[in-house]
Amino acid sequence: MNYDCIIIGGGIAGLQAAIQLGRYMHKVLVIDAGDGRSTICQSYHNILGYPDGVSGEHLRTAGQSQAEKLGVQFLLEKVEKIEQAETFVVTVHNGTRYHGKRILIATGVMDRLPEFPELFPCLGQSVYVCPDCDGYEIKDKPTIVLGSGNVGASMALTLTYWTDNLIYINHELQKVDADLLQRLNEKQITYYEMPIQSVLAEGHHFQGVILENGEKLEARHGFVAFGSNEVKSQLANQLGAELLENKHIIVDPRTKMTSVKNVWAAGDIVAHSEQVTIAMGDGAQAAIWIHKSLMENE
Q1: Do residues 60 and 32 make contact, with C-beta atoms less than 8 angstroms apart?
Q2: What's the half-sphere exposure (Cβ side, CA atoms, 13 Å) at 269?
Q3: Radius of gyration over every alpha carbon of the chain, rounded to an integer in angstroms
Q4: What is the Cα 94 distance to its own chain's centre?
């Protein structure tokens, strides 16, 4: 139960760090709750070497397999508490405690998504959440933005870089500021302030939506923008790590260490750009400096 490093979060950043630390031959435990953002993305399209896209599931499975071959251990559990004593004591949901000399928090962010089960197989395939990642996928194509208030309006306006055939549905009927409404009108974005009754999809192919009034809107691509995404920095907050107002963890830009000694953070929980490729780099960089710190003690 004693480890050189305990990584909390087995997504992209956590796995890349685990691989790097495994190659240093450190004793590493990755504890993952199995509900991270990368578990729901069916395809990432902006990663080097995957021009046709790669799923979060594939990256997670391949990453875990690679790390396990290096001796890294994995545990499917939710961490409830971290305490700092001579080492760090990590308590999981079933009450078991694990001790680590170093902690890496890679718990990520989870998007707030509407409760339409038909939507989930489409994520990353025909419905997207990140314009930087997937704006290119809707180039010159009719697209529906499913969103809420100003957040959805801003997303629709951002997407005009790629397409001028846009519909924005304010599903939650939240207020949209007058200046944003004016800009939606100027960009000829069709605006509906009405709840969505159902999402139309065939497997991972988005087809459109039916509004509460029965009106059917068709498009083969969609974006989701509801705001208030969950930033999973509660464990860092327990330890007293410094956070930004938006709850992302502040780290040293070079080492990725938090304001708490021997506690690192990597991935979407840190980087507000929230990119898979940046999460990979974050994980590797944190692991390098975790290794350096362990070597200093020896």
Answers
A1: no
A2: 32
A3: 21
A4: 26
Domain locations along the chain: 2-111+229-296, 117-225
> Which DSSP string do the residues of 247-274 spell out, in sequence order?
SPBP--TTT-B-SSTTEEE-GGGT-TT-
pLDDT in the model for residue 298: 72
pLDDT band at residue 273 using 50, 70 and 90 as cut-offs: confident
Is the pLDDT confidence value at 272 over 80? no
Q: For strands 88-92 and 79-84, give the pairing.
A: antiparallel
First to last CA, the chain: 20
- Please identify which residue in the block is written with the tokens 């809707």: 138
User: Rounded to an integer, what distance in angstroms lies between the CA atom of residue 148 and that of residue 28?
Assistant: 41
> Do 10 and 74 contact (CB within 8 A), yes or no?
yes
Q: What is the pLDDT of residue 147?
A: 97
- Please give the class, per CATH, of domain 2-111+229-296: alpha beta
Whether 2-111+229-296 shares its CATH topology with 117-225 is answered: yes
pTM of the model: 0.94
pLDDT tens by residue, 139-167:
999 999 999 999 999 999 999 999 999 99
Instruction: Report the topology of domain 117-225.
Output: FAD/NAD(P)-binding domain (3.50.50)
